Amino acid sequence: MATDRYLAADAADLVEVDYEPLAAVADPEKALAAGAPAVHPQWPDNIAFTFHQEGGDTEGAFRDAEVVVRQRITSQRLIPTAMETRGVVAEWRAGERSLTLYSSTQIPHLLRTLLAGILGMPENHLRVITPEVGGGFGSKLNVYAEEALAAFVAMRINHPVKWIESRRENFQATIHGRGHVDYFELAAKRDGTMLGLKLKLIQDLGAYHQLLTPAIPTLSVLMMPGLYNFPNISADIVGVFTNCVPTDAYRGAGRPEATHGIERMVDILAAELQMDPAAIRLKNFVPANAFPYATATGLSYDSGNYAAPLKQALDAVEYPKLREEQKRARAAGRLMGIGISTYGEICAIGPSPATPAGGWESATVKIEPTGKVTVMTGASPHGQGEETTFAQIAADELGVDIDDVLVVHGDTAVVQYGIGTFGSRGTAIGGTALYYALQDLKAKVKKFGAMLLDTQKVTLAGGTCTDEVSGKSVSFAEIAGAAYRALKLPPDTEPGLVATRFWEPPNFTFPFGAHIVVSEVDRDTGAIEIRRYIAVDDCGKIINPLIVAGQVHGGVAQGLGQALWEQAVYDDSGQLLTGELTDYAVPKAHLMPWIESSHTETPSPVNPLGVKGVGEAGTIGCSPAVVNSVVDALAPLGVRHIDMPLTPEKIWNAIQQGGRA
Amino acid sequence: MIPQAFDYSSPRSLHEALVLLENGEHKVLAGGMSLVPMMKLRLATPGRVVDLSRVPDLNRIAESGGVVRIGAMATHHEIETSPVVRGQCPLLSEAASHIGDVQVRNMGTIGGSIAHADPAADYPAALVALEARVRLVSAHSDRTLDAADFFLDAFTTALAPGEIVLELEIPAEDSSEGYRYEKVAHPASGFAVVGVAVRIKKNGAAISMARIGVTGMGPRAFRDRAAEKLLEEGADIARATAAVGAGQEANADLYASADYRRHLAAVHAARALTVALSRAS
C-alpha cells in the first residue's frame, strides 16, 4: 500500500511482469470457428451458453411467406465512459468491527449484500455509501473486484484505503456494452404484412461473466418483435467468450440491439417491396385497441398507440414534402436521406421473477415534527434527477411546498433496503413505492387534521388541512407537531408520521416512440450531416418535462455515438487499440444536431402514476433512425445496409463500390 | 496518470533559461498541452522541466518591415485574436482557431506546438504555406530556418539539444490575397486527419500565386509545389488538385486509411482553394 498516488504509480512501474503470450481471440465469430484458441481451456468451443426462444409457428410463417429478407447486422462493442470513473474508499473500524465503503455504484444495497458474502462479514456490519455518482449508464450496475479488494486491504492494514480508477483503467477494467453479431431473417407477404422473424444472435461476452453479462442478450430477444403485430418468432442466442473486457448492461442493455435489428430489417423489407418505410410500419403496428397485447416472446405490452408518435414525427418533418425535396435532391446528384425508427422498449425492470435479485423498489416518507418531509428512496439516482421528480410527487400528494421536501438516497445505513436505478425503473417503480407510502401518510395526516378540527371530512392542499363543511383549517406543520406531541390521538392511530412501502410491479412498462433523421451525405468525402433530428417519445405520464428532455437529449447523444463514432477495437492478440479518449470518439457537444423533441402521452396502467420510463429511450430510438437515413441517402447507389459506426471512410467506400455496381 | 518525480525550474530571463537547457536531459515546458499529458502517461520522464512562462516578452506579437514576428510563447488564442496576425497573416489566425478547444487554445503556445511537431497539428500546414521562418536560439547559437526545413518527421524537428524556438517570422500576406484553412478533425482527438492551408493571389481571372500546405496526411507537413505550379500555369482547381497528396507518404490509423487521407487532401485542397479564390480581390 502506498501513502500517496505518486508513490503508488512509481511502485507499480517497478513491477515487471513476464508474460507468456497465449493464443487469443477477440472476435466472437472467429471464436466460434473450428480450431479457434480457447479463452478458457474447460470450454474449448468458447460457447458459454445457448438459449432458444420460440413463439408461434415460425417455420409455417416462412413456408407461407411471399418474400424473405436476410441480413447480418452488428451492434458494435462500446465503452460506456461515464464522466466519473469508478472509485472506492474503504474504512474499517476495528473497534466496531464495521466497514464503511464509499463506492461510485448504481446499486448500494445489492453491493452490500454481495460484498458481505465475498468478505464473509455480517451484512449489518457493512455500510455502503454512494455519494453523488457521476454517471453509470449500466457500467456501475455491477460488483467489481476493486470494491472487495479495497475493503479487504482496509481491514488487513486497519487504515482507510482509496482507489480511483484512471480513464485508461476504466476502458479496460469496467464493463463494455453491446457486442452483437445478429443474423436476421424476416418473412412477409408481398403487401408488406410481416409474418415471422428468425434470429441467430451471437453475443460477445468478453472473457468472463460480470453481474448480468448473460442476461443482456435475453432482453434483446424479448424485444425482437418491436412494435409489430406478428406472432411467429424463433431466436437462438449463442454466448461466446472472447479475450476482451466483459460486456454487460449499457444504456438500453439489449434493447438498442433488438431495435436496431428489427428497424433495419423493416427498412430492408420496405426497400425490397418498394414500399414507403412509414407506410410499412403503420401497416404492421400492433393496433391501438389490442392492448394489453401478448407478444410471441411471452410479454404483455401494457398500453400503446404506436401510430401516434410516428404520425406526429411525420407531420413535424412534413413528410410528403420532404420526400419531394429528396426527389429533387437526387435528381441534382445529392445524397439526401430520410430515416425512420419506431421503437418499443421494456422498462420498469421489473417484476421480481424476471430479475436476479428482486425487481421491486422501496420508499420511506417521514413527515418531521416541524412538517418538513424527508423521502428516502431505495432507488439510487446517479444523474436522473429523482431528487426533483420524487420531491414533486411528494409535494403534489401532500399538498406541501416542494422546497419542504428532501429526497435522500444512496446510504445503506440511512435508507431502507432498495434495488437501485437502472433499466428505466427509477420513477416507474421507485416513484410508485413513494406514491403508496404517501397514500398511507396522507390518510394518517387527514385523521390528525380531522381530529384537530373536530370534524369528519377534510381536504389536504396548499400546506393546510381544511374542514370541507366549516371551511376552518389547520396547517400541515401544526398537524405534524400534534402527531409527534401526541397529547391526543385519533382512534386506532399511533403517534408519528412515517410510512414505508415496498412495491412489487405486476408487469414491465413498454414505452415507445418514433425518431426521424434527415441526413445528407457528402459524396466526395463520405461525411454525414444530420440536417434534422425529430424525436417523438411516449414515456407515459410526464412528471418533469425538463428532466425528460434531458434524458432524451443525453440518450440521443449516446445513440449518435454508436451510430456515427464509437467502437471499441481490439487487435487479434486481444489488445484494446481504442484505449484512450484520443482514440475512442465519444459524442461531443459541438457535434450534436438540434434535437426537435416532443411527446405523446399514453399512460401506463401498470402503476398509479401512469409513468413508463425514459432514461434509455433516446439511445434505443436513435441509432436505427440514423443508419436508416444514411442507407436511404445511399439507396440510389445500390447500398442496402451498412454497419455502425458510420465513419466517413466506410461511407466513402460504400459510395465508391455502389458507384461501380 | 501520475508523472514520475522531476525537478522544476522557472527561469526569469532568456539567458537563464538557455544556460539551464545546456543540459540535454531537460525538457522545455511551454503551455504544457503536449508535455504534461506525455509525462502523466510516463511516455516522457524528464529529469528537469524548464518552464518558460516567466521569461519576459516571449509571447510578443509585432510587425515591422513586412514581417510579422510571433514569440514562441504566444498562445493559440492570442494568435487567433491578435489584430496584427488577423490583419497581416490571417491564414495563421484561421488555423489557430481550429486547434483543440477553448481551454487548449488558452494554454497552448505556437512554440510548444511546433517543437512537439505532432504530424496532425494544424499550424504546420499554414506555416509552410506562409513560407514562415523559425528562429532557434541556444546559449551559443542563433539561427533561422525555413518552416519547411524545421519539420523533419513525425515528432522530429531540426531543434538541436539546448535549442529552443524563440520566434516565428512570417512574411505579411498581401491584403489582396485569398486564404483558407480546411480541416477534417478526428472525432476523438480533434487533431487534423487532414488539414489544408492555401493562399492565392489573383491577376484578373488568373491565379498569379498559389501556396498549398498539407498537414495530418503524412509524417510531416508539406507544400504541394506541383499543384501550386499547375494553378499558376492556369489549370483549373479540379485539375490542379487532383494529384494533391499523390505519391506522398501517408499515415493510416483506425479512423482513416492512407488512401483515404490522400483522397481527403485532394478534396479539401480544392475546397480550400475555392474559398480562398472567393476571398481574393
Helices and strands, with pairings:
The complex is a heterodimer of chains A (661) and B (281).
Chain A: H1 5-14, H2 28-32, E1 47-55, H3 58-64, E2 67-75, E3 87-93, E4 98-103, H4 108-119, E5 126-129, H5 145-157, E6 161-164, H6 167-173, E7 180-188, E8 194-206, H7 215-222, E9 232-241, H8 255-273, H9 277-284, E10 293-294, E11 300-301, H10 307-317, H11 319-331, E12 335-344, E13 361-367, E14 373-377, H12 386-398, E15 405-408, H13 426-453, E16 458-461, E17 464-467, E18 473-475, H14 476-485, E19 498-503, E20 512-521, E21 528-538, H15 545-565, E22 595-599, H16 617-634, H17 648-660
Parallel strand pairs in A: 4-5, 8-9, 14-15, 21-22
Antiparallel strand pairs in A: 1-9, 2-7, 3-4, 3-6, 7-8, 10-11, 12-20, 13-14, 13-19, 16-17, 17-18, 20-21
Helix pairs in contact in A: 8-16, 10-11, 12-13, 13-14, 15-16
Chain B: E1 7-9, H1 14-20, E2 26-29, H2 35-40, E3 48-51, E4 61-64, E5 67-71, H3 76-81, H4 83-88, H5 90-97, H6 102-107, H7 110-116, H8 123-129, E6 133-137, E7 142-146, H9 147-150, E8 151-153, E9 156-157, E10 164-171, E11 178-185, E12 192-203, E13 206-215, E14 222-223, H10 225-232, H11 237-241, H12 258-279
Parallel strand pairs in B: 1-3, 2-3
Antiparallel strand pairs in B: 4-5, 5-10, 6-7, 6-10, 8-9, 11-12, 12-13, 13-14
Helix pairs in contact in B: 5-8
Can you give me a brief rundown of this structure?
The complex is a heterodimer of chains A (661) and B (281). Chain A is an alpha+beta fold.
What key phrases describe this protein's structure?
heterodimer; A: 661 residues; alpha+beta; Aldehyde Oxidoreductase, domain 4; 4 domains; 5-stranded mixed sheet; 4-stranded mixed sheet; 17 helices; 22 strands; 33% helix; B: 281 residues; Uridine Diphospho-n-acetylenolpyruvylglucosamine Reductase, domain 2; Uridine Diphospho-n-acetylenolpyruvylglucosamine Reductase, domain 3; Enolase-like, domain 1; 4-stranded antiparallel sheet; 12 helices; 14 strands
